[in-house]
Amino acid sequence: MDTEKSSSSSFEDLTNAEDTKDIRKVAAEEAASGDGQKAEEEDAEEECDVLGNKQLIKRTIKKAPQDSFRRPVRGELVTVNFTGKLDNGTVVENELNFQCHVGDYEVVQGLDMVLPMLQVGEVSQVSVDSRFGYGSIGLKKEGESEYLVPPDANLTYEIELLDIKYEDFADLKSFEILRKYGTRKKERANFFYKRSEFTTAIHLYRRALDFLDNRDGDPESEFDKEDLELSNSDTQTLLEDRLIVYNNLAMTQIKIAAYDAALQSVEHVLRCQPNNSKALYRKGRILEGKADTQGAIKLLQKVATLEPENRAVQSDLARLFIKARREEHNEKEMYQKMLGQAKKMEQNTATRQKQPLVDNSKLKLLGYLMGTILIGVAGVAIYRYKY
């Protein structure tokens, strides 16, 4: 066979040293290029655009150990370390061994959304757009006018997931645990209420109520034995905390005009404390929202009796009296208009009924005249014929 290779062959003649050198050089460059692409692909796997719009990006700094596969799910208790910084490097949050329940907004929303993506032992950097941080409101220092996080500021967090714990019914059969979790949810709900983030506040108030209860709901408990065995003082403390949460929940529901839900919340308070002035006042607000001004006045009058020095109640009561008079005046005008229209309709009906009577009398008169004429003509004809 000819030593020269066919042009259609897939093999190269590598006998020439210079050609071999060039090919090796090309191969080395391709290998280097391939390694670079592989490294880029690995880096790409370490970065995750969670929402696909660059507003929430997770980058893995330290991978979890190989034997760590579990990720937290909604409702589980996690322990984390995290540090939050502004774009200029200013540290605004720093927490060690911080515990929270996944999905309960106990950290900024961006971090809460990333928690289920972490594994125990993993360290990640999370870039959070202001939309999923502190938004256009920002975050001020407690009791100060200075901003800790300016409005519309992006944040960068470094977070390490230390532990995940699934809490079963046995873990919650403790007065201290129940009150600790319930109080934490309530305080976080108050935080969102002050920021006018009412939907999030309602969620957290409801979560607080889940814990501030002496009924654990354990399906494995014996019938009528599911309630926790608490002392009278502990039971009373949980009840008082629950009533505070129900009162706050009702006020938050009023803010979004969810009056039926707010009425149910406030009734929980009034069943236990019929003279709770806050609950009575909020029920009055609810009735006003449901267009029952007189009912609202009665409740606010009761509140004014319980708290005679409360100027806000006196002011609202005066406003409701004015509103009631205005409504009464408008109602009278409406009835007068309705009555006037009814009378006008009656007159029109009577006129239409009388009109045919006039026409009938004219016809009768014409009939009489024609009859008389005919009789006269007939009499004349008979007279002429006879004589």
UniProtKB/TrEMBL annotation:
Reactions performed catalytically: [protein]-peptidylproline (omega=180) = [protein]-peptidylproline (omega=0)
Residue ranges, compositional bias (Polar residues): 1-13
Chain spans, region Disordered: 1-46
Ranges: TPR repeats: 277-310
Transmembrane region(s): 365-385
One GO CC term, this protein: cytosol
Compositionally skewed regions (Basic and acidic residues) per UniProt: 18-28
Keywords carried by this UniProt record: Isomerase, Membrane, Repeat, Rotamase, TPR repeat, Transmembrane, Transmembrane helix
Residue span, PPIase FKBP-type domain: 75-165
GO biological process terms held by the UniProt record: negative regulation of apoptotic process
EC id: 5.2.1.8
One GO MF term: peptidyl-prolyl cis-trans isomerase activity
SMART domains, alphabetized: TPR
PANTHER family associated with the record: PEPTIDYLPROLYL ISOMERASE (PTHR46512)
Protein name: peptidylprolyl isomerase
Species name: Drosophila mauritiana (Fruit fly)
